[in-house]
């Protein structure tokens, strides 16, 4: 199925198991589909900061990526050489898929 539109979310098929506190294997995660417009190629440095989690990943802007993150609010900062940095806040809810399109604008 296609990714949800910006700001929309959709429950995943394993949400019941993943989000059930009685399930000891539950991960309490959601997924963020990161996509890029405005640049056909390049490497994005993506810094993800939440209350209890922090990471930096490198992503090909031509393909984007799917991030699996624990339930929390995150600040996502994207930097690509030759483009303005972009910051967006995202609320990850257990079992939901969130589209996070990033529009890159040249400097």
Topology at a glance:
Blueprint: E1 9-11, H1 15-18, E2 29-37, E3 43-49, E4 54-60, E5 65-70, E6 72-79, E7 86-92, E8 96-103
Parallel strand pairs: 2-8
Antiparallel strand pairs: 1-8, 2-5, 3-4, 3-6, 6-7
Describe this structure in words.
With 107 residues, the protein is mainly beta. The radius of gyration is 14 Å and the shape is elongated. Helices cover 4% and strands 51% of the residues. The protein is built from 1 helix and 8 strands, in the order βαβββββββ. The strands form 2 sheets. Strands 1-8-2-5 form a 4-stranded mixed sheet, with no helix packed on it. The chain has a 4-stranded antiparallel sheet with strand order 4-3-6-7, with no helix packed on it. The model has no long low-confidence stretch (mean pLDDT 87). The termini are far apart.
Instruction: Report the total helices.
Output: 1
* Tally of DSSP β-strands: 8
Q: Which structural class do the helices and strands define?
A: mainly beta
- How large, in whole angstroms, is the Cα Rg? 14 Å
As a percent range, the share of strand residues is over 45%
Averaged pLDDT = 87
- Main sheet characteristics: 4 strands, mixed
Q: Order of SSEs, N→C?
A: EHEEEEEEE
The main sheet orders its strands as: 1-8-2-5
Q: Low-confidence runs (pLDDT<50, min 5 residues)?
A: none
Shape: elongated
- The proportion of residues forming helix, as a percent range, comes to under 10%
Summarize the structure.
The chain is mainly β. The chain has one helix at residues 15-18, and strands spanning 9-11, 29-37, 43-49, 54-60, 65-70, 72-79, 86-92, 96-103.
């Amino acid at each position: 199925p296609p990714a949800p539109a910006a700001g929309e979310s959709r429950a995943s098929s394993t949400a019941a198991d993943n989000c059930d506190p009685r399930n000891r294997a539950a991960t309490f995660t959601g997924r963020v589909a990161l996509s890029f417009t405005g640049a056909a190629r390049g490497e994005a440095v993506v810094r993800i900061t939440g209350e209890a989690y922090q990471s930096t990943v490198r992503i090909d802007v031509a393909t984007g990526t799917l991030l699996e993150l624990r339930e929390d609010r995150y600040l996502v900062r994207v930097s690509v050489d030759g483009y303005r940095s972009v910051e967006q806040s995202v609320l990850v809810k257990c079992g939901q898929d969130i589209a996070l399109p990033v529009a890159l604008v040249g400097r």
